[in-house]
Amino acid sequence: MAERSAASSAQASAAKRQSVVQMHRDNEQAICQFESQVSAFEERLETARKDSDSDRLTGIASRRDAEHYLQRMASREKATDQVRDLFTEVSETSVRNAIHAVVMLHHDIEWNASFDGGFDRVPGVKRMDLD
Fold first, then answer.
1. Which domain holds residue 105?
2. CA 60 to the chain's CA centroid
3. What are all long-range contacts of 107-112, with beta carbons under 8 Å and residues at least 24 apart?
4. Quick check: is 58 in a domain?
5. Residues 43 and 75 in one domain
6. Is 91 found in the same domain as 47?
7. What phi, psi does 13 have (nearest 5°)?
8. 39 and 85 in one domain?
9. 80 and 23 co-located in one domain
10. How far are the Cα atoms of 26, 29, 44, 64 from residue 33, in angstroms, in the given order?
11. Residues 100, 112 contacting (CB under 8 angstroms)
């Protein structure tokens, strides 16, 4: 009986090892396939960049595009500063509320329908109470 148990245990152990080896092979195969897909994608991307006449480093096609990109970055930096200022100046305002409030103010949106009373303390934002 003990011999049967030992043989059964050895077979189970061998089956587990074989299963692990097969999983390892499958994973290796999947990784190789993924790497080849990434390589193909990178080649197509490089071809598209060459065909688009855009700068390889920045991806910006023209001076006009570069100026537009810089203006957007400056606008984002300004918005970030406004969020930081609002967060630090208005007591008990969450960063999330500060972000929402700055976006609202940038788009001239005066009213906000919210359960969150934190908007009540933000100047320029009116809250429609949902309670």
1. 63-129
2. 22
3. none
4. no
5. no
6. no
7. -65, -40
8. no
9. no
10. 11, 6, 17, 40
11. yes
- Digit-by-digit pLDDT tens for the chain (131 residues) are 666 777 777 788 888 888 888 888 887 888 878 788 888 888 877 776 666 666 655 566 666 776 777 777 777 788 888 888 888 888 878 888 888 888 888 888 899 888 888 888 888 899 988 87
Torsion, Cα of 43, 46, 47, 52 (10° steps):
160
DSSP string, 19-82: HHHHHHHHHHHHHHHHHHHHHHHHHHHHHHHHHHT--TTT---SHHHHHHHHHHHHHHHHHHHH
Residues 6+ apart with CB under 8 A from 46: none
How many structural domains compose the chain?
2
Selection from 127, 121, 113 nearest residue 88 by Cα: 121
71 and 123 housed in the same domain: yes
pTM attached to this predicted model: 0.45
On whether residue 10 sits in a domain, the answer given is: yes
